[in-house]
């Protein structure tokens, strides 16, 4: 089908003799189609004007950000300090004391290095509180500081960006240094120094032998991309937690199976197997909701209790949403005494919480997390359940049996490595099976109808032209109107609609954060490529390779580089959600709670998709329109700096798995493939499908696609191979249970912070939060009187450590 399509298009293109046909085609594209204002013949495609306007907007947005950062510092940073740091404080306090104590008793050089690393973040936060000092602070952030504060996933993400930057440097040198002069050497278009068309491949005649150079360079770019990504993955050492490597997630267990019976099965079926923990999963969605609401009510009561103690007066609130904004008292919106309201609400939620917690054990999900004593036995069990064993007509053999096999229904088990406990959405585990698939199907059908038939920018622009919305200005032929606003409109929609895609992935209720991010990345990338690249390019089939079409994408990349990255700094969607939540708050206590809990994890999936969309546009047009590459490099450099700032200052750390990063690497290869496809389409339209350049490009493209598909398929099915489960016998001997010739020591049970159990089930009772409530009460008192609050109070531990070091 594909060769027939190209042959048909090629015959049409071959019958068109240049330059006469080219002139009529150009007249059609510029004059017909209801005189669209999107494609206009402008001096150098309006690129200089768009560049100047976008740069001025960039400076203005940076100025606005600096002001907001100064006057609204709590947006982003306060939540990080009071939420993330306090959440991890009880986990790290004891470890930190032991770490510093060991440092104080070690060698002086080693002690200095470790204490310096402890206090580095303190010094850093103290030297970037000027109006514009954050600009230089971005360059002073080290990868080690990002790793300590944001996690290893942030470092892998930034490393990916640096390799893309290096790739664009190499592509830019070749495109601007070689391909651009080759395009200039043609004489097909007008000999005007201000003509953008002279920089494109359209300036070369169809019989020019230099067209072979373009195809060769496209293949070279593919090799450079593969090499760059290979270099990135070779440096990506993704280390899983020891607990994760020793834990399996089992789905399909009998719902009422007991943990002791699960332990008994594995210890009977597998020799030298010791099960440390077997934790069944329960439906805790409602319990987690009640726990969250109970804690909010408790914080509200403590806040107003402290306020009453301070001011010796009771506070009245309107308990309706947006109650603090209501200035008049009407029936149904009467004010109530704050402490009394929150006390009653807390008692009600506490009773509901207790009743729900008593019923949790009656809601098993048929899942379990099983932790073993070492990685070897874990790999053996995983291999036993997943490796393909062809026995007659049955492709999969039965795993080892025990006396409990029948009651546990082990033939129905699905066994995988368990994700990190921090990676799990415990409240989503109850949504599974047929219900999950129906939910996913409905959401994605609605998303498809919304995005591709209603809100595609190309369709909106065409609709605007059909209703003569742009009729009064189409005769102005002004670059601001004809180039700046269409590219700005395209960027606005390409920035808004991925947010819709993200929320669709959220409502799909994935079990892990990694799964949610991967789905967001693949869906966003696919949609953005269709919306930004394919539909605008192929909407006018005979206008694909006009010079102004290339200028449109150059202007889009410029808009993404300056306006897009500046808007990423401002984080407008998050700021809007922050304002909406503040408006919906019923009292000052709830507004304070919103401020302290508005920080979110960095969305790696959406960030990867957005970045790879622009990269794909740049690579696709790097041959046909080489002037786009320097602006793509500018985008990646600014994107890297903006993401370093946001990761360190604005977002909570996220714990994902390596699949999100490997998935991004696989998607990068689509960019040079689309570049080859563009050249094939151009060659077919100009010279026909049977032309030597077309056939060569087609063969290279097919071979590349086949290789990539095989790689992806083998990547998906490699778990069927026994070679995937390699066991290090030098470290652990599974037969005699000895490690390096010595008896194997069973590791201690995992810490409570790393148990495979929802946090809400680890809390003994609502009264168990008394200590936390007292701590929050003192913090509430400080928030009531913010003048008495000092940033250094959060760093008292580090300051005392440094002081001890000085006195040594």
Automatic annotation (TrEMBL):
InterPro entries in the record: Csc1-like, CSC1/OSCA1-like_7TM, CSC1/OSCA1-like_cyt, CSC1/OSCA1-like_N
Record's subcellular location: Membrane
Segments traversing the membrane: 49-68, 164-184, 210-229, 436-460, 480-503, 524-547, 553-578, 599-621, 627-642, 663-683, 695-717
Catalytic activity from the UniProt record: Ca(2+)(in) = Ca(2+)(out)
Membrane topology according to the record: Multi-pass membrane protein
A Pfam family annotated for this UniProt entry: PHM7_cyt
Region of interest (Disordered), ranges: 762-808
UniProt keyword annotations, A-Z: Membrane, Transmembrane, Transmembrane helix, Transport
Gene Ontology MF terms: calcium-activated cation channel activity
Superkingdom of the organism of origin: Eukaryota
Domain CSC1/OSCA1-like N-terminal transmembrane intervals: 126-230
Ranges of residues in domain CSC1/OSCA1-like cytosolic: 246-428
The UniProt record lists the keyword Transport: yes
Ranges for domain CSC1/OSCA1-like 7TM region: 439-540, 543-689
Biased composition (Acidic residues): 769-784
Cellular component, GO annotation: plasma membrane
Family in the record: Belongs to the CSC1 (TC 1.A.17) family.
Full protein name: Transmembrane protein 63B
Provenance organism: Chrysemys picta bellii
